[in-house]
Amino acid sequence: MRRGVTTIGLLAAAFAAAGGVWLTGSGGQRVGRQAFDLAALRALPDQFPRTADFDFVPPEPGSYALPPIKPAASAVLLDHTGVRVDLGSLLKGRISLVSFVYLTCTDVNGCPLAMSLLYEIEHASRTAAPLRVSVQLVTISFDPKRDPPAALAALADPRRAEVAAGHVMDWHFLTGTSEEDLKPLLKGFGQVVDRGTDLGRINHTLRLFLVDASGRIRNIYGLGTMDPRLLMSDIATLLLEQAGAG
């Protein structure tokens, strides 16, 4: 037993000496398939180009800290198959990008913009192993009447095979059991939703929440900060922190 532990220690030391980091599981154990070299983590922002909308250089991953803001709120939700899911449990063990949307939103600076960004991140995960292994997307509809599980299935089902094969990161699509049941969750996250009197439109503040593997909100992005390079820098910073290599 002691020799096995020593062998693992030597392998870890050799990997670290080569410029790599081991990410840990929820119990603190080193997980071999989550071993990435530092260059791969620090290069995550380079998956996306600099644009006119975000014409700046994002901070270097690991060069800053993201103090916990607050624990992410939890609720029992429904997935695309109608199975009940405890959100608190889902948000443990992997870094999560949590978004709140409704599928019939037509505001170009609202849900469609957030979904477009998430599609870009999902696509980037095809060539970025840290995203595939250690990060997940969690999209929650706050319009359960018009977004039942069957509506979410149209988004989730085409991805299941590629997720199972390890080709892309996991993307969970969830909805509430009722508008009333969603209120504590929305309040807990600080997601503003105003249903108003227009039955076809739901006014809401565009937000994207970065949640760490312990279920704590570490950053909140709005319309002016949804630069995928910034998100990747923040994700890499959390992964480096998790690995003790910040």
Q: Key features?
A:
246 residues; alpha+beta; 6-stranded mixed β-sheet; two-stranded antiparallel ribbon; 12 strands; disordered N terminus
Q: Could you characterize what this model shows?
A:
The chain is an alpha+beta fold and 246 residues long. The protein has 8 helices and 12 strands. The two termini are 31 Å apart. The model is unreliable at 1-22 and 24-34 (pLDDT under 50).
Helical residues, percent:
25-40%
- Unreliable spans: 1-22, 24-34
Structural class, from helix and strand content?
alpha+beta
Shape verdict: globular
Cα end-to-end separation: 31 Å
- Major pleated sheet: 6 strands, mixed
Strand content: 15-25%
Number of E-state strands: 12
Count of alpha and pi helical runs? 8
Kindly report the average pLDDT value: 85
| SSE succession | HEEHEEEHEHHEHEHEEEEH
Strand order of the main beta sheet, please?
3-12-11-6-7-8
Radius of gyration: 19 Å
Write the layout of secondary structure elements.
Elements: H1 2-17, E1 20-24, E2 30-37, H2 38-42, E3 70-71, E4 76-78, E5 84-86, H3 87-90, E6 95-101, H4 111-124, H5 129-134, E7 135-141, H6 149-164, E8 170-175, H7 179-189, E9 193-194, E10 203-204, E11 208-211, E12 216-221, H8 228-243
Parallel strand pairs: 6-7, 7-8
Antiparallel strand pairs: 1-2, 3-12, 4-5, 6-11, 9-10, 11-12
